[in-house]
């Protein structure tokens, strides 16, 4: 972090990031075919207004706020607003059926549920009569059906804005009261082996993971980089690696439009880093090898040689050692002949279907690693 001091809570992490990096694009999203930016100052304002708005709705320290939404900037804004209010969030996969949504709402005792689209609001409407703890539903989409008994995100932010005008430092003051051992989130299992179970994670749990990952990636990413987020933020891997870790380093987070658009979005934002799954890399590898197999034998030989050079250089990167001069020269030639031609077409090579089984992380911009 630019402050030089490690965060103790996720509240610290947020304020260190927006105060320390002051970026024109802390988050990015695509709307109407155009990528738009949310600056550090805008992000701080959005989070504080929503956090204060939640407090106006009666959210107190330790209360639960459910998030029923796909990946989007508002997911992160709601998460951060909940945390700096001293509350606890309970993410819900948007693919879940109303029965599962009902179970999580009741098990977590959510006082507020923030929902993204009309489809998610319909799920809530179906089960709301069976949720004794749920007091408020907030809709994220401006175009979502204004269902009875719901509030728009802008309405809640406006409530917070008015309260902040009278007490400007209220959100920071509440955030400063948060302790590392305080509960931050309830992450629910899939329910494939019975009812979903809410895993209780504290601020210290998540921050310790961020700091552990940061020690591994020292010097590998920074505020000049962009990360593409497409794995579900409901899962702790994307939330920790593709979100909190990126805040720690000041990396701009660009939210993919959806799984089907990942390939196109990769080409558009040129991410330096992203959390992904093996299936995406397998599809890239298969498409590249298909292309190589149709090339003349001489080109195939050059490709295999470059691949070997890339692997040698990559081993040095992993071990944090400097490649010898001859290997560096070979790599420069391999990059010019092979890798530089693969990089621009890399996103298209993954196709439109990118889901997989287990998570992994990769530097997508680096030319040091072969496309294996």
Strand order across the biggest sheet?
4-3-5-6-7
Give, in order, the helices and strands. Answer: HEEHEHEHEHEEHHEEHEHEHEHHHHE
How many β-strands, per DSSP? 13
Please state the average pLDDT score. Answer: 89
Indicate the low-confidence ranges by residue numbers.
Answer: 347-372
Main sheet? 5 strands, parallel
What overall form do the CA principal axes indicate?
Answer: globular
Number of helices: 14
In short:
The chain has helices at 10-21, 40-56, 73-84, 98-108, 118-127, 153-166, 170-176, 203-216, 236-249, 262-269, 278-293, 297-319, 325-342, 346-349; strands spanning 27-31, 34-38, 64-68, 88-92, 110-115, 136-139, 150-152, 183-188, 198-202, 226-229, 252-255, 274-276, 360-362. With 372 residues, the protein is an alpha/beta fold.
Which helices and strands appear, and what pairs or packs with what?
Layout: H1 10-21, E1 27-31, E2 34-38, H2 40-56, E3 64-68, H3 73-84, E4 88-92, H4 98-108, E5 110-115, H5 118-127, E6 136-139, E7 150-152, H6 153-166, H7 170-176, E8 183-188, E9 198-202, H8 203-216, E10 226-229, H9 236-249, E11 252-255, H10 262-269, E12 274-276, H11 278-293, H12 297-319, H13 325-342, H14 346-349, E13 360-362
Parallel strand pairs: 1-11, 3-4, 3-5, 5-6, 6-7, 10-11
Antiparallel strand pairs: 1-2, 8-9, 12-13
């Amino acid at each position: 972090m630019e402050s030089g001091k490690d965060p103790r809570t996720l509240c610290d992490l947020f304020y260190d990031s927006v105060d320390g990096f002051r970026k024109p694009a802390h988050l990015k999203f695509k709307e109407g075919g155009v990528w738009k930016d949310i600056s550090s100052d805008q992000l701080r304002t959005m989070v504080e207004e929503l956090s204060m708005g939640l407090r106006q709705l009666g959210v107190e320290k330790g209360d639960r706020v459910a998030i029923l939404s796909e990946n989007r900037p508002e997911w992160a804004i709601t998460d951060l607003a909940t945390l700096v209010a001293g509350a606890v969030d309970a993410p819900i996969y948007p693919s879940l059926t109303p029965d599962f949504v009902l179970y999580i709402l009741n098990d977590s005792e959510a006082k507020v549920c923030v929902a993204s689209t009309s489809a998610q609001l319909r799920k809530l409407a179906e089960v709301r009569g069976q949720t004794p703890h749920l007091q408020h539903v907030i809709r994220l989409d401006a175009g979502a059906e204004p269902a009875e008994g719901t509030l728009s995100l802008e309405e809640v932010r406006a409530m917070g804005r008015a309260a902040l005008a009278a007490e400007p430092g209220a959100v920071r003051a509440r955030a400063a009261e948060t302790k590392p051992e305080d509960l931050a989130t309830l992450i629910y299992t899939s329910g494939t082996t019975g009812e979903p179970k809410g895993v209780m994670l504290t601020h210290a749990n998540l921050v310790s993971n961020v700091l552990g990952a940061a020690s591994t990636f020292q010097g590998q990413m920074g505020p000049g980089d962009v990360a593409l987020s497409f794995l579900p933020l409901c899962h702790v891997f994307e939330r920790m690696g593709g979100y909190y870790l990126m805040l720690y380093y000041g990396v701009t987070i660009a939210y993919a439009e959806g799984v089907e658009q990942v390939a196109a979005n990769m080409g558009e934002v040129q991410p330096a880093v992203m959390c992904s799954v093996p299936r995406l890399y397998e599809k890239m590898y298969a498409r590249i090898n298909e292309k190589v197999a149709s090339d003349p034998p001489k080109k195939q030989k050059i490709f295999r040689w470059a691949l070997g050079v890339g692997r040698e250089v990559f081993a040095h990167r992993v071990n944090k050692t400097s490649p010898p001069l001859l290997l560096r020269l070979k790599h420069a030639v391999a990059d010019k002949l092979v890798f530089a031609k693969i990089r621009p077409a890399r996103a298209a090579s993954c196709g439109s279907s990118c889901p997989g089984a287990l998570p992994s992380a990769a530097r997508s911009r680096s030319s040091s690693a072969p496309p294996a």
